[in-house]
Specification:
disordered N terminus; binds adenine; about 30% helix; 3-stranded antiparallel β-sheet; alpha+beta; 15 strands; 5-stranded antiparallel β-sheet
Length: about 325
């Protein structure tokens, strides 16, 4: 018997003592409860391994983080951001779900959805580019996931085809929230006290306790992956929800063109191209998609299309938004 409680999963062990009395022990899941398999990915601070729950035989991806390395490299706050963000985004089909966390002396463990298809980037590289139908489908799923995370007050800040995973049904699962920005939740997510004072709900309280870092310290220090970085991050060192929509525009461009819009020999030159809006559509780039991308890759973030605007753009004509989008069969990649 087991249940899941915001990442802290427990199983109930039933014991019968020598007098025949039943007792129950609550045991948190740990390393010993999983069989570890192949390596799925490696980052600078972590390794992701395939793993199977020995009791339920459910397969997961487990992200293993080395504690000493994280402390030495001063990345503790990013690990907290990732855990807290994933807990806040627990319930959307387009976002990798965090089931359990635990630790041993050496490592932290994040037990995540296994996305057997791997990175969207792998498919772009293999196929060269996507056709309009596939770009529409994957673009729509990515956008729906962005809409959900923005509604929960999370800006991803590093959206790119490496961070878009695909599951066994070839549906999108967005991952890697280590550099996300957590906004104050809107008022409907706060619970009122009897004395009328606004009280942070428990999840939010956990954030405050866990992170405890003033926002200004984080906001200035982060730059995502060069090719997808928004101009406002380069000029004002500030990210907003619109920054994720800039990255979304870059991804839509890349799926159809086979390369990101802003790419140069080095990061500095890439940044120059971004702040000067210096990019070109390849011959044959579909007109409707061009119109969409041109309205997303706009230097002023307040002038970009909103998520609602994007959903009603002619490029996404025919897409049924909401739950239906996640019940749909993925178009075959060709
Ligand atoms: N690589 C990194 N995270 C992964 C995941 N959750 N599933 C599959 N491969 C991954």
């Amino acid at each position: 018997e087991e249940w899941k409680d915001r990442g802290a999963a427990v199983s109930i062990q039933r014991h019968v003592d020598s007098n025949g009395n039943q007792t129950h022990r609550i045991v948190k899941k740990g390393v010993q409860d999983f069989n570890f398999g192949r390596t799925l990915g490696e980052g600078s601070y972590s390794t992701v391994l395939a793993a199977t729950d020995r009791q339920t035989l459910t397969e997961y991806a487990i992200k293993v983080l080395d504690k000493r390395h994280i402390i030495k490299e001063k990345k503790v706050k990013y690990v907290n951001i990732e855990k807290n963000t994933l807990n806040r985004l627990g319930d959307h089909p387009g976002i990798v779900r965090l089931y359990y966390t635990f630790q041993d002396e050496r490592s932290l463990y994040f037990v995540l959805d296994l996305a057997t298809g791997g990175e969207l980037l792998g498919f772009v590289k293999k196929l060269g580019s996507f056709d309009e139908e596939c770009t529409r489908f994957y673009g729509a799923q990515i956008l729906d996931a962005i809409e959900y995370m923005h509604s929960k007050g999370v800006i991803h800040r590093d959206l790119k085809p490496e961070n878009v995973l695909l599951d066994d049904k070839m549906h999108v699962k967005i991952t890697d929230f280590g550099t996300a920005k957590i906004l104050d939740l809107p008022s409907q997510n706060r619970t009122s006290n009897t004395d009328g004072k606004t009280q942070l709900d428990r999840q939010e309280q956990d954030f405050a306790n866990n992170i405890g870092i003033p926002d200004h310290e984080r906001a200035n220090s982060f730059v995502g992956t060069a090719e997808y970085v928004s101009p406002e991050l380069l000029t004002d060192k500030s990210a907003c929800k619109g920054s994720d929509l800039w990255a979304f525009g870059c991804i839509v461009f890349q799926l159809l063109a086979g390369r990101p819009p802003f790419k140069a020999g080095n990061e500095y030159q890439t940044f120059q191209k971004i702040v000067n809006l210096e990019y070109q559509f390849p011959p044959g780039f579909p007109g409707v998609a061009r119109d969409l991308v041109e309205r997303l890759l706009v230097l002023d973030p307040t002038k970009r299309l909103t998520i609602e605007n994007i959903k009603s753009h002619p490029f996404f004509e025919g897409i049924v938004w909401g739950k239906q989008l996640w019940k749909q069969k993925a178009p075959r990649l060709k």
